Amino acid sequence: MTEGTYDRMSPFLRQLLAVSGVVLYMIGTGANIAFPGVLLQQLRAPDSALKLTAEHESWIASILGLALISGIVVAPFSLQKLGRKLTNQLSSLPALGGWALLVTAKGPTALLVSRSLQGFGMGIQAAAAPVSIAEYSAPKHRGAFLATIAFSFATGMLIAHIFGTILYWRSAGLACGSVYALSLILVTLSPETPPYLASRGLNEQCRKAFHWFRGYDANAEKELEILLNSQKKVTGTRRGSRWQEYRKIVRLPEFYKPTNIMMFMFVLFQVSGMTVVPSYTVPMMEEVSAGAIDANVSMLMVDVVRFVTAVLSCVVVNKLNRRTVLFIGIIVSVVSLVITSTLLYLRDFGYIPEEFKWVPVIPTLVYIFGKTLGILPIPWAIAGEIFPLAFRSLGSGISGMFLSIMFFVVVKTAPFSFDQIGVSGTFLVYAFCVAVCGVFLYFLLPETKGKTLYEIECHFKGIKDDAAQIELREGEKMLEFEKVECG
């Protein structure tokens, strides 16, 4: 793509180009999460050349969570030292390697190593994706762009299940892994994010990148000056050793408040069954439908509902308040989980006629709709907005640690839970956990829609709106002064 081509692109299209590279990576992440649902099903066939035990199966589905931890530990340092662009590029390499090893695997050990490589890359990207998308985007587009993470997950899950249904698992793995190559190309075509360049004191490169993404309109120029000025203040206040700096950071309200919020967000994300359902869709839906619906058909029903809802969420998140969308998703999920569980209990005790034994499928699909509409997109949208630039990498890493730990715990215990208390009992446990997280977030989570990243930072610092407006006016004055000087 030539410079002339770039010049003809609008700022929105340039932002879309940069975001698309991250989106493709997250499509691969959705495929990583969902692939065991078809892989394990094929490997259970009597004629399968690769045999697994039940223990192997649970580890193949859950080891992503453990591998995520290692990636998330690396992510803050990579984001801070190497930048957003290079971190996104490097995270593609273990993912590509993981899919290549999976395609050529001859035994369970190779499958576990391949899944570990995928999880390591996912861990890096779990921290990098929301930060990168938020820093690429203008405030008016940020909500929709961050909601594409939910769309990406749903798309990747749908692709994995479709390919896994119509193709042999090795061919399906090759198709799923190819999205990482496309992601790497698109990320390479985009410049580094302006906030990262500003945080490193690279002001001229920051201006150039900012204008590439945002153009030269008046509002963008104001935001650029505020960004540069705020980083001058931060750079000037750094003193002492790295350990002393960390001790100071963790006591700052603009750090510990967003971190607590994101911990609850990512716990909510996992205990809602976000990763359990795609990993165990077939056995779960077999029990919910009591065998009345073919397993592959029910799996694709879940995927289609999730995909359509994820597309809808890209619009809803940009139109409605973040809190509104989140709590709609929580309420719908809790109510539908309770209804599904109740219907399953009634069916077990013989209160539902044989011809209506499939009825629990309906509230189950409503549950998929609810969690995909609100619980899937909002944590990722908030993760990209809520941390101040000075320690956005560190905050994303710490909160992402909860995401990975809960991923492993929830997915690893799911088979035991299904076996001991059934889908009905497991759904009740999920409903209770989602409700508890929802109560905490009701009191902790502020509204971030339509606010600049600097205004969100001011909220957690306790700076009133009028004070933030003073900062805006100072930025405008400095911009005018610089124009006079240049003139």
From TrEMBL:
GO molecular function: transmembrane transporter activity
GO cellular component: plasma membrane
Pfam families recorded: Sugar_tr
Domain Major facilitator superfamily (MFS) profile: 16-449
UniProt-listed InterPro entries: MFS_dom, MFS_sugar_transport-like, MFS_trans_sf, MFS_Trehalose_Transporter, Sugar/inositol_transpt
Superkingdom of origin: Eukaryota
Keywords: Cell membrane, Glycoprotein, Membrane, Sugar transport, Transmembrane, Transmembrane helix, Transport
PROSITE patterns xref list: MFS
Membrane topology: Multi-pass membrane protein
Annotated TM spans: 16-39, 59-79, 144-163, 261-280, 300-318, 325-346, 358-382, 389-411, 423-445
Main location: membrane
Compartment(s) where it occurs, according to its Swiss-Prot or TrEMBL record: Cell membrane
Entry protein name: Major facilitator superfamily (MFS) profile domain-containing protein
